[in-house]
Design goal:
Blueprint (H helix, E strand, L loop, with lengths): L2 H14 L5 H8 L2 E3 L4 E3 L2 H5 L5 E2 L5 H13 L5 E3 L3 H10 L4 E3 L4 E3 L11 E6 L5 H13 L3 E5 L8 H4 L2 H5 L3 E6 L4 H7 L6 E5 L11 H8 L6 E3 L5 H25 L1
Parallel strand pairs: 3-4, 7-8, 7-9, 9-10, 10-11
Antiparallel strand pairs: 1-2, 4-6, 5-6
Organism: Staphylococcus gallinarum
InterPro entries: P2CMN_synthase_LarB (IPR039476), PurE_dom (IPR000031)
Protein name: 1-(5-phosphoribosyl)-5-amino-4-imidazole-carboxyl ate carboxylase
């Protein structure tokens, strides 16, 4: 039985036993809330395992605040990506318990309040210029409950720095590799570990980098198996995918433990 089916069964049982009104059950079964400019998805957690994530670019500060209000009324975890400091400050005036990370342009539910996974994901960054994307990936994974290891500034131009951390990386269950320029770091990592690697190309580099297109094509053409490539500067996608994988491993572990 899926989590969604369990939720529906629990609601129907509560209605049957008169501990929950039909109106309250209908409210909980409502799939989205239409607030005029947006239809906020209230069932995404049941379908995908995590609530709707708010993309901050192109939205006004008040629109973001109104969407957060809707999600919080449904007791959801909050994750806003690509939100600048001015918009974030507007939101924090209404919801001061949320946390803003300026480098990553991410606004979240307090990270410390979220239970952490047993398994870990490695967030590996080639250079300091790639840190905003690396932190977007790291914070996305963390707010989704994934324990992480940060391994930063270990690009191939000084590859000896990487080898000082290779056992830490190998002890993780998935790696997210963030790199610009020619993007070689993801191929190097994939050739050294026995777990999946999510490669995130960044738009960091000189002219022929073509704002990340060169990096993207290089990562796609990697000769090292086990690499999956995200879109340019998509740290969020890398963190989300890694967290989903860790969540699957945790569920399998819980199932095995319950059998014993």
């Amino acid at each position: 039985m899926t989590e969604n089916e369990k939720t529906i069964e629990a609601l129907l049982t509560a209605v049957q036993s008169n501990t929950l009104s039909v109106a309250s059950a209908m409210k909980q079964l409502k799939q989205y809330n239409d607030i005029g400019f947006a239809k906020v998805d209230l069932h995404r957690k049941h379908r995908q395992g995590f609530p709707e994530v708010i993309f901050g670019e192109g939205k006004t500060a008040q629109q973001i605040t109104d969407i957060i209000q809707t999600l919080l009324s449904n007791k959801e975890i909050i994750l806003v990506t690509r939100i600048d400091a001015d918009k974030a400050n507007h939101v924090l005036n209404h919801y001061p318990r949320l946390e803003y990370y300026e480098q990553a342009k991410v606004l979240t539910t307090p990270i410390a309040s979220i239970p952490k996974s047993t398994y870990k994901a490695a967030i590996i960054c080639a250079g300091t210029s790639d840190l905003p994307i690396a932190e977007e990936a790291a914070l996305t994974a963390q707010v989704m409950g994934t324990e992480i290891e940060r391994v930063y500034d270990v690009g191939v131009s000084g590859i000896h720095r990487l080898f000082d951390h290779i056992e830490t990386i190998r002890n993780c269950k998935v790696s997210i590799v963030i790199a610009g320029m020619e993007g070689a770091l993801s191929s190097v990592i994939s050739g050294l570990v026995d777990h999946p690697v999510y490669a995130v190309p960044t738009s960091i580099g000189y002219g022929a980098n073509l704002n990340g297109i060169t990096t993207l094509l290089a990562m796609i053409n990697s000769c090292a198996p086990g690499t999956s490539v995200l879109n340019i500067d998509n740290g969020f996608g890398g963190g989300y995918n890694a967290a989903m994988l860790i969540h699957m491993l945790e569920q399998e572990q819980q199932t095995e433990e319950s059998l014993w």
